[in-house]
Amino acid sequence: QVQLVESGGxxxxxxxxxxxxxxxSGLTFINHGLGWFRQxxxxxxxxxxxxxxxxxxxxYSTSVQGxxxxxxxxVKNIMYLQMNRLNSxxxxxxxxxxxxxxxxxxxxxxxxxxxxxxxxSS
Length: 122
Prior knowledge:
This protein is mainly beta. It has no helices and eleven strands.
């Protein structure tokens, strides 16, 4: 049974930074895909970034490319999302999720955390 628990959300001023963490349990030594998604009020959930658990390959949405960095520590079983130069459009609930493969498609992800809220004030 995979469990994912996000933390690190909060209130930050525009231009600031936050680092989200996703503590994972139940992962095996398989090159799973792990991803971050977000859902803003009144909007659909959208892909943010993904990483392969073993090899560390990464993929980003165009809206966060160059500002956000996804990483993982598979010894500690934690995935991170470093978010820099935040703006009001980054305000959302952020979710981490696990998929059997490397993908940006939310429908492929089988396990989800409960989410952590990020609010960017202008």
